[in-house]
Structures are given as C-alpha cells and as structure tokens.
Amino acid sequence: MISIASCPRAAAKSQLQACMRPSGSYILGLKASPAFTVKTWHGIGGSQRWESTSAVRVNHNVKVNPPVSTLPAPLVLQDREPNEKFISYAFKQGKGYLNFYKSGLKSVYYNFRDTQSILNRLDLRGNAASIASAAQDKILTRSDYHFIRRSARDVAKLPLFALVFLVFGEFTPFVVVFMSGVVPYPCRIPKQVLNERRGLEERRAMSFRGLTEGPPPAQALANEGLDAMNLNQVLHVARSLGLYSKIWPEGLLASPPLLDWVVKRRIRQRLEYLELDDSLIARDGGVVPMEAEEVTMALVERGVDTLGTGDAQQKDSLKHWLRATTRARSPILQLLLTRQSVWPAKDTN
Predict the structure, then answer these.
(1) Do 129 and 269 touch, CB atoms closer than 8 A?
(2) Reduced to 3 states, what is the DSSP secondary structure of residue 15?
(3) CA torsion, points 78, 81, 87, 88, in degrees to nearest 10?
(4) Residue 275: pLDDT band with limits 50, 70, 90
(5) Which among 103, 109, 90 has a CA at the least distance from the CA of 174?
(6) C-alpha span between 44 and 263 (Å, rounded)
(7) Please, where are the H alpha helices in the chain?
(8) Rounded to a whole number, what is the largest CA-CA distance in the chain?
(9) How many angstroms separate the CA atoms of 18 and 14, rounded?
C-alpha cells in the first residue's frame, strides 16, 4: 500500500489532497469509496435484482478491493404499466439503457483521469510490466493495481464502443450483446455479463470432456511449463480461460506459428498475472474481506465455474485455489487441467 510519505513529489498533506477524487473518495488505498448510492447486483446464475446499500460505499478492505467505478453501474429499468402502449414502454426502457451507458462512460473517463494521475505522481510508466513491478514492490496495493489495469483495458475498447454508441444510441444493447469484446466493463449490462460467463462455462465443460489424459506430473509442469503438455492440454487451458474466441478454427490455432505466438503467449501472460494476483490477495487482506463480485471475477479469471454458487461457496473456492498454489505449491497449470474436486490442500482452516 502507498503511504502518504512514499510519493516523491508531494508532502503528506498535499498528497492526501491530490489523491482525492471529485466525488469525495480517495484512491491509492487511502480511503476508496465513491460517494453515491450504490446498489449490489444479485443476478449471476440466479434472480436478477439490485439492492440498495447506502449513500456512501464502504469497502471493508480498501487494499484488496478496487473502486466500485471499475464495475458496471446499476441498470434501472421500469416495469411496464397496465395498458401502457408498447412504444411508450420501449421508450422508457431505451432511456434506462441510455442512462446506464452514460454512467458507464463517465466511469471510464474518470477512472482514466485518476489512474493517469497515479502514474504521473509515482513516476510510473503505463505499461503492464512497470505496473506489475510496482505492485510486487508494495508501491501499489491490489486495489490500485486492478484500478490501473482495468482502466487501461476499458480505455482501449472505448473508441470502437463510442462509435457503436453514437450510431445506435438506446438500441446499443441489441448490438453489443453479440460483441462483448468491444464493450468497456463498466458499460456491460447484467445479461451480457451472465451470457458471457455461461458461454465460457459451457465451453469449459465441453473441453474437460475432451481431455483424454491426466495432467503431467506437478514437477514437470513446474520445471517445463507448457512444454510438458500436449497440444490438447494447451488448447484446453486456453479454452477454459477464454483466451481466444470460439469462432477461431482450432486447426489454424494448432499450427506452430499461431500456437506459439498467440495461444501459448496468452497463456503465459495469464499465468504471470495469476501468480501476481494470488500474491496480492494474500498480502493485502486475503479472501475474507473481498467483495462478492470481486471474488466472482477472480474465479472466472482462474477458470473456475461460478454460476449457481453462492458467495460463501465462491470464497471457499478461491481460498482453496490459494491454498493449493501457496501451501501445496501446486503449479497453476495443474489446477487449470483439473477440476476443483481433485485440487490439493483442501481444508477448512
């Protein structure tokens, strides 16, 4: 976590002021919570609804939970009144979606502005390697790291999404539901998130059924990595993590150039990210204080099914993953090639 005295260009008082967001919240682990009404979405794998919490969101642990502005805003849609004409109802629905996208785009803009301020203040370059190094060196907390990482990812998608939004306006949901890859995360509607996770889990289940061999020995995976795995196992890991679109012909991806330059490169990048994130979760508070959606997102990134599971079960799954990679020192590739039921280090402590 960044201490007030650790920033090279400001004294303690000016640093605290510089880290304050316009909404009245603080970033860089100093206070982190936007001052607006926040509603929690209960909808992945079950009924879909938003529950209002309070006018000010209080993170139980600001080191481990990124700002809520990196997540989709509440989507408020009005019910159809009795005898209401369809055109009038459709107009209200369109207005609700329009407000949702405007809120999401504002979040992307303010997140970008704030993260650039962080990078400039700490003399950090904006590339992934420098951000990861700063997190490893305890200059950034997990919250800060994900704030910067998610903002950069969202900004990269902004030009194409903004074009779609300008052309289609309130009809954007009917277009982007088929192209989630171009939508910044704060602009993704609940149905879009749900469909994406359901599709990934169905693809993962089919891929597991196609695994005819058990994983290589843990020591071989630790020493040789992807080189210890056969082609089917490599493609399974990529499918399970959603690292390439299912419209890509696998015969083409299996060719040596694309297998090395696309598939294996993306897997190695994810492995490096997961190793770092595992260490940041353990260092900055553990699984217990993590917000429910943050736990869900962490499991999705690790190729673990989440649909139809509750918050407590998901936290247990993430704890199990961390025990396996830290206490049992199991290679992450071993966990990705097996279901959770056979992971090592299963305990209740």
Answers:
(1) no
(2) helix
(3) -70
(4) very high
(5) 90
(6) 29
(7) 12-18, 86-121, 128-136, 142-168, 172-176, 190-209, 218-224, 231-240, 250-253, 256-258, 265-283, 292-301, 311-326, 332-336
(8) 68
(9) 6
| Beta bridge partners of residue 51, listed in sequence order | 40
- Length of the chain measured in residues: 349
Half-sphere exposure at residue 258, Cβ-oriented, CA atoms within 13 angstroms: 11
Give the pLDDT band (50/70/90) at residue 22: very low
In 10 A of CB 296, how many CB atoms? 24
Read off the pTM. 0.81
Q: How far apart are CA 115 and CA 92, in angstroms?
A: 35
Burial class (CB within 10 angstroms; exposed 0-12, middle 13-18, buried 19+) of 145: buried
Find the distance separating the first CA and the last CA of the chain, reported in whole Å: 26
Which amino acid is residue 244, in one-letter code? Y
